[in-house]
Structure formats: C-alpha cells, structure tokens
Specification:
Layout (H helix, E strand, L loop, with lengths): L1 H17 L6 E8 L7 E8 L8 E9 L11 E6 L3 H5 L2 E7 L2 H13 L8 E2 L6 H11 L14 H11 L5 E6 H7 L30
Helix pairs in contact: 3-4
Length: about 210
C-alpha cells in the first residue's frame, strides 16, 4: 500500500513539473501630483503572460512631445512617456487588476497606436492627454465608469473615481511608488527588483519626467 501511495505522489509531482507555469500580467494605474512637474497618469504592466514567454516589466504614459504655448491653442505632436525609477518612486500606485492575455494584447495595441508618428499620437490638452490614454487602457481591461469628462485633466481624481466604480474588480494599492515597488517580488529570470529594472521601449527611448497630463 505504501508503495502505491509513493508511486501516486511521484506521478503527481512529475505532472506538476511538466505542466507549463501559469501566470498573468497585471496592469497597475498610477498618478503623479504637483512637484517638479505637472500632474500625470500612467500605467505599468508586470508579470508573465498565461501563454508563456519572458517576464514583462514596463510602464507607459502619454505626453506632449515638446512644451510650448501651442499646447493652449490646439493639437500638438505627442509621444509615449516612459517613467524613470525616480519618477515612479515619487508617484502613487492607485490600483491594479490582472489581465487575460487577450486584454494584455489589446493594451499593447493601444500603446502601439499612440506611439510617436502614429495617428493617435496627437496630443490635445483637453481631451487627448495622459488621462485619456489611461482611460482607454482601463476600458480595454473591462473596467466600468471610465468616462469622467470633468476629470480628464486631474489624474489622481480621475483614478480615484474609476476605483470607486470598480471596487469589486480591482485590487486597491494606494501606496507611494517607492513603497509599492519595494513590495513587489522579483520576477522569474530577471534577478533584480523592479525598482532597479524599468525596461525601455526601443522605439521610444528615455524621456524626462512627464511635464503635462
């Protein structure tokens, strides 16, 4: 009898070892308040797709390509904004939700569509800014109450309003970026904490901290 039990345990162990590791990519929504720059909203993508592949650890925001008075009078060129670790430390992680691979793919397509030179890379202070970009990501991952016209230039207030509509769908974080990043586990195969590993997008390049919402 003991031999049968041991054999069964061995079979279970072998099946577990041969099964693909299951994980998911989490999207976390962030805000940055007044300080050395204007308010800003962005999101991070972190984890491993359910289908497998390398770990994901990136962040994206959207901003104007250049600061000028033209911002006040009409559309200007926009670009993706990749936050540096120091900027993230001074920001606030508001809430997160785990995505399906389909939702993750949709968010990546959003990022591509808003990349510099694409049709959606036009920046308009009132209705096509960093909050609009975050709003579309929230819509793609199935959050409700994402249309908040009065808050489209108020990143933190906007995210708080969306959180209020989705308390049962998201994980509340409400931590400073420094504390939140320090709490994250090391991703498999990265070998470094996330605060020291903020990947860059080859087609975007480094940017200064976001200066407009």
């Amino acid at each position: 009898m003991k031999s049968l039990v041991r054999l069964f345990a061995l079979l279970v162990f072998c099946v577990g070892c041969s099964a693909p590791a299951q994980a998911s990519v989490t999207i976390t929504f962030w805000s940055h308040e007044l300080g050395n720059s204007f308010p800003h909203a962005f999101f991070t993508l972190r984890g491993i797709p359910d289908a497998g592949g390398p770990p994901v650890d990136v962040n994206y925001g959207f901003t104007a390509k250049a600061l000028s008075p033209a911002l006040l009078f009409g559309p200007v060129a926009g670009k993706l904004d990749i936050a540096r670790p120091t900027y993230m430390n001074g920001s606030d992680a508001q809430f997160s939700t785990v995505m399906t691979d389909a939702q993750y793919g949709a968010v990546l397509r959003l990022v591509d569509a808003w990349s510099e030179g694409r049709p959606d890379s036009v920046y308009r202070l009132a209705d096509h800014n960093c909050v609009t970009f975050v709003r579309e990501a929230a819509r793609l991952v199935g959050l409700k109450g994402v249309d908040q016209p009065r808050l489209m230039k108020k990143p933190r207030s906007y995210l708080k309003a969306v959180l209020a509509e989705n308390g049962d769908r998201v994980t509340v974080i409400d931590l400073s970026g420094k504390k939140y990043l320090a709490s994250l586990p090391i991703l498999p195969a990265t070998g470094a904490p996330v605060e020291n590993t903020v990947p860059r997008v080859a087609s975007v390049g480094d940017t200064m901290p976001a200066s407009v919402p």
